[in-house]
Amino acid sequence: LYYGAIIVMLLYNFTLFLGMRDVNYLFYVLFIAGQIMYQFTLNGLSFQYLWRDAVWWGNICLPMFMGFATFWAMFFARSFLNSKQNAPLFERLYRVFLPLIAASAGLALVLPYSWSIRITTFLAMISSPLLVINAAIEWRSGFEPAKYFFISWVAFITGVVLYTLKTFGLLPSNLFTNLTIQIGSLLQVVLLSLALVGKYNVMRRKYYKAQQDLIKAQITSYEAERAKQESEIYRLRNVELAQAYRDVEEQRVEMELLNRSLRELNDEKNEFLGIVAHDLKNPLSNISMLAKVL
Description:
Mean pLDDT: 82
Distance between the termini: 164 Å
Largest sheet: none
Shape: rod-shaped
Structural class: mainly alpha
Low-confidence stretches: none
Number of strands: 0
Radius of gyration: 49 Å
Number of helices: 10
């Protein structure tokens, strides 16, 4: 039942990776694959069903699968929590531990089992609290999906601790304590899937908000440009009106000058006609008188 549920989660998240092309899902799938093979080997099922005749490989693959799972767990955490931007200190720690974990997984092929299992276990014990602390800081800073990441690792570590206490006789051996690692691992896988969904929703909300902000900015820019154009049109209209007023004023001045010139010409005409009438009046009077005498 445990392996069936884990494999279903692996296939489900791999399908999401193919559909969404989000590398976080790929890193998560690789982590689940490593976790499956580690648990399968730890319980002796891989030697029983997969490589029954490969004794050498069956003796050395457990630390390699542990290193493989730890490597992709840290790589997934680094990408999911975006430590490069949000936690530079943890990013530096990841850059130190990731090569060490990869090297420990590779050295499991050549080192004695007693050495390789100690090295990979030691690195896994250090890596787990590191991921939990990083997730707790990101959760506290407001990154909501980090909550599921934090709880998932706490659940897994709790399962490991309970199984260890059972192994040392500090807890009774029963069905629950014998399956605490599987229970914690299954809870971890489910909660990490929820964390991925939560991060996708956060990214989608940010995308929609960015789109809305862009639309608002475009509307604001359009309104500002429209107001600028209307202001320019109003200014041009005022300029045209001012020019028309000046033209009318110039025409009025020209008309006044023309009227003044006409009045002056009319006065000159009247004065001239008066002089002519006066000059013609005397000769006509004389002629009239002479006509009466005759």
